[in-house]
Amino acid sequence: MTDSLYDIAVSLECPAWAEALPDVAERVERLARLALDSCPEDRPDGALELSLVLADDDTVRALNRDWRGKDAPTNVLSFAALDDDEAPVVEGAPLLLGDVILAWETVAAEAADQGKALADHLAHLVIHGVLHLIGFDHQEEEEAAEMEALETRLLATLGIADPYRDEDQGR
Q1: Is 167 domain-assigned?
Q2: What's the whole-model pTM score?
Q3: Positive or negative, the Cα torsion across 134, 68, 100, 153?
Q4: Which end of the chain is more exposed for a tag (fewer CB within 10 A), N or C?
Q5: What range defines the domain where residue 61 resides?
Q6: In three state form, how does the secondary structure of the chain look?
Q7: Domain harbouring 17, CATH code
Q8: Of 84, 68, 78, nearest to 100 (Cα)?
Q9: What is the pLDDT along the chain (171 residues), one digit of tens a residue?
């Protein structure tokens, strides 16, 4: 699935991903495209480039420690190149959006703990991570509500339940 608008690189750094979901590389690429296509008004113009890394907890923990000062693994990290004012922009070249890195052990454990299918939880986290690359955030309550609503709508198109449903009932 290739077009001139997106250059999406998927890196399988932890084999457990493919053992659990044999089509994981194609799956995350489709999910990234879904997220990018969902909000053309918020997406930068022109060809876009991003990478998705299917890693393990050790890799994500090191990145989280080195870049965010948090010495612990997390489910997904997004490094948005558009947040870097010094990132080079080359006329005619695809615009580098950044990287989304997922941690196998944390994602698998969360899915099991929450009673969710691994593929569904992965779908949520890929969409969430890619939306961060194009400027969505959840630091403020209004921003969080907008991002969560979009994630929920996108997941519903895939037949996946609202991942925030239980959180909303507790508010």
Answers
A1: no
A2: 0.89
A3: negative
A4: C
A5: 6-137
A6: CCCCCEEEEEEECCCHHHHHCCCHHHHHHHHHHHHHHCCCCCCCCCCEEEEEEEECHHHHHHHHHHHHCCCCCCCEEEEEHHHCCCCCCCCCCCEEEEEEEEEHHHHHHHHHHHCCCHHHHHHHHHHHHHHHHCCCCCCCHHHHHHHHHHHHHHHHHCCCCCCCHHHHHHC
A7: 3.40.390.30
A8: 78
A9: 345 588 999 999 999 999 999 999 999 999 999 999 987 665 666 788 999 999 999 999 999 999 999 999 999 999 998 766 665 565 666 778 999 999 999 999 999 999 999 999 999 999 999 999 988 988 889 989 999 999 999 999 999 999 998 654 443
Residue with tokens 């997922």: 102
The response to whether 121 counts as a known ligand-binding position is no
Would you say residue 106 lies in a domain? yes
Cβ atoms within 10 Å, residue 60? 25
Residue 111 falls within a domain, yes or no?
Answer: yes
Residue with tokens 């053992």: 19
Query: Is residue 128 a known part of a binding site?
Result: yes
